[in-house]
Amino acid sequence: MTEKIVQTAGRNRLGDFAPDFAHYNDDILFGENWNNQDIDIKTRCIITVVALMSSGITDSSLTHHLQNAKQYGVTKEEIAAVITHVAFYTGWPKGWAVFNQAKDIWTD
User: Tens of pLDDT along 35-69?
Assistant: First the structure.
């Protein structure tokens, strides 16, 4: 069993303003879903990066999930292959956008 993922960003940023959303974010999405052992954490990280890329989301949430991917063992070569592959299906500009963020993370 891997270490349990604990998320507090929802409560930290939105707890007073949107407590239900904070609860769903911290306890359900990250507390239950991210800790489900049916998919290993490395694969889950890759899937999340692909989903964000496909949606065109290149804000701090993508940065966070790229950092998670690196932390949980996704190599520079693997992330480059994933982004390249997905760019053919989601659009080349999305690939460029994600590479611009990934390059900074994997060259730290």
Answer: 888 999 999 999 999 999 999 999 999 999 999 99
Looking at residue 2, its pLDDT comes to 64
For residue 29, give the nearest of 46, 43, 44 by alpha carbon.
Answer: 44
Q: Answer yes or no: are the C-beta atoms of 45 and 72 closer than 8 Å.
A: yes
| Contact between 69 and 49 (Cβ < 8 Å) | yes
For tokens 């480059």, the residue is 80
Q: How far apart are CA 35 and CA 106, in angstroms?
A: 25
Give the pLDDT band (50/70/90) at residue 106: very high
Cα 8 to chain centroid distance, Å, stands at 16
Instruction: Tell me the C-alpha distance between 28 and 13, whole Å.
Output: 16
Residue 42: phi, psi to the nearest 5? -65, -45
pLDDT at 27 over 60: yes
67 exposure class (CB count in 10 Å sphere: 0-12, 13-18, 19+): middle
